[in-house]
Amino acid sequence: MDASGFIQAGGQSRRMGVNKALVQFAGAPLILRPLEVLRQTTKWQAIVTSEAHLYATLGVECVPDYRPSLGPLSGICSALMHSQTDLIVTVACDMPFLTKELICYLIESAKGGAEAVVPTDDKGYLQPLAAVYRKSCLQPALELLSMGELALKALIRKVDTFYLDFDSLRPFVGKLPPFANINTPQELALYENLSKTN
Q1: CB atoms within 10 A of CB 172
Q2: SS3 of 61, please?
Q3: Average pLDDT, 10 consecutive residues per value, the chain (198 residues)
Q4: Domains parsed from the chain with CATH numbers
Q5: Strands (DSSP E) along the chain, which ranges?
Q6: Across the strands, what pairs with 7?
Q7: What is d(CA 35, CA 14) in angstroms, rounded to the nearest whole number?
Q8: Is the dihedral of CA 146, 81, 125, 97 positive or negative?
Q9: Global pTM exceeds 0.90
């Protein structure tokens, strides 16, 4: 589809203790799960990271984090700066249960002209790191960073955002929680076991 896909891998992985993007999940680096989904749904893919050498064997381009250590809003800026298309899909490196059907639905939902398409999970929490943004979001994002505002929620409040409630997403997700992310060794073990039984 006419979108570029970006995996955000600029986090510090403090709770995991090691780079969580590269921990083994079902026999492969965790980051390969969302990367494979983006390869099936977007025209071009890249990893946003300040440590490109760590991903040299994955066969995917890396782009530098705009302002390392400033969080995901900085990563979104980098993605928007380097995108080859007007639309980007951005996902976190530690989301193993995203589906290609879900990503396609997010992209399709952006055709109405919204600047951002942001889903919610089954508890009603926004998921701005599994979302679609237009290049028109770049300037507002840069302005927020210049003011010291680092929250992604500030960006989606500032631009024309289309919100997708979880009920609308149900046909496009499987039995596993699509927005689950892995931050600790305990969560790694939990979700790996869950993936084996579903």
Answers
A1: 18
A2: strand
A3: 91 73 92 97 96 94 91 95 97 96 97 96 96 98 96 96 97 94 91 86
A4: 4-197 (3.90.550.10)
A5: 4-8, 24-25, 28-29, 44-48, 61-63, 87-92, 116-119, 130-134, 161-164
A6: 47, 91
A7: 22
A8: negative
A9: yes
